[in-house]
């Protein structure tokens, strides 16, 4: 009886391990022009500032059985424009780099964790998801450290409905992003200290970030 049991167990367990499916891998093309990052900072007593880029790159995974996902995204600092104004854009680059690194060497990077989709994906239906994400700005992390809460929706486009590859349309939102906790501030930038008090009521410290992305299934 013992011998028969020993011979049967491998026949049952080994196939279950070998057929485990890998998560699907998707990519967001920064050169497509339709993948956007937008950050709006609206000061009650000052300006409403909009920083935008259409050069978002992502590598993402989605595991359908567990309704979970993950991955990372990045945006080059030099691709971000502030109110379409060259002077504001230059000032933002100085605040982001703290004038310690070249803007061309700086990226806004986001690592995604704990991504949970609320239901199986269906063609043409926006399905809510929640996630947490860890930002690094020019290599700097948030202080105090901690993730950002992310919420949004994901919609499935089968092959042939939005290009040849299966595509996910992703809309993601981050509330109350505190730029100063990442050192994106005149306070942290040499040469700006004398202007901090003057700027304080004009530029909001907290804003909302939105991503609008099309992720295509890799072959």
Report on this model:
With 219 residues, the protein is an alpha+beta fold. It has a single domain (22-217), classed as Lipid/polyisoprenoid-binding, YceI-like (Lipocalin). 15% of the residues lie in helices and 43% in strands. The protein has three helices and twelve strands. The protein has helices spanning 2-18, 86-97, 196-199; strands at residues 24-28, 36-42, 48-53, 57-63, 68-76, 81-82, 107-117, 126-137, 140-141, 148-157, 167-178, 206-217. Strands 1-4-5-7-8-10-11-12 form an eight-stranded antiparallel beta barrel. The longest helix is centred in the first third of the chain and has 17 residues, at 2-18. The radius of gyration is 22 Å and the shape is elongated. The relative contact order is 0.19. The model is unreliable at 1-20 (pLDDT under 50).
Provide a compact summary of the structure.
By secondary structure, the protein is an alpha+beta fold. The chain contains 3 helices and 12 strands; from the N terminus they run H-E-E-E-E-E-E-H-E-E-E-E-E-H-E.
| Helicity range | 10-25%
The ordered string of helix (H) and strand (E) elements is HEEEEEEHEEEEEHE
Termini Cα gap: 48 Å
Record field, number of beta strands: 12
* Number of spatially distinct domains: 1
- Inertia-based shape: elongated
Summed up, the helix count is 3
Q: What is the radius of gyration?
A: 22 Å
Approximately what portion of the residues adopt beta-strand conformation? Answer: 35-45%
* pLDDT averaged residue by residue: 88
Task: Using the coordinates above, name the CATH class.
Answer: Mainly Beta
Q: How many strands, what sense, and barrel or not for the largest sheet?
A: 8 strands, antiparallel, barrel
Level-2 CATH architecture: Beta Barrel
Q: Ranges with pLDDT <50 over ≥5 residues?
A: 1-20
- Summing up helix and strand content along with how strands pair, one would put the structural category as alpha+beta
Trace the largest sheet across and list its strands: 1-4-5-7-8-10-11-12
Query: What do we call the CATH homologous superfamily?
Result: Lipid/polyisoprenoid-binding, YceI-like
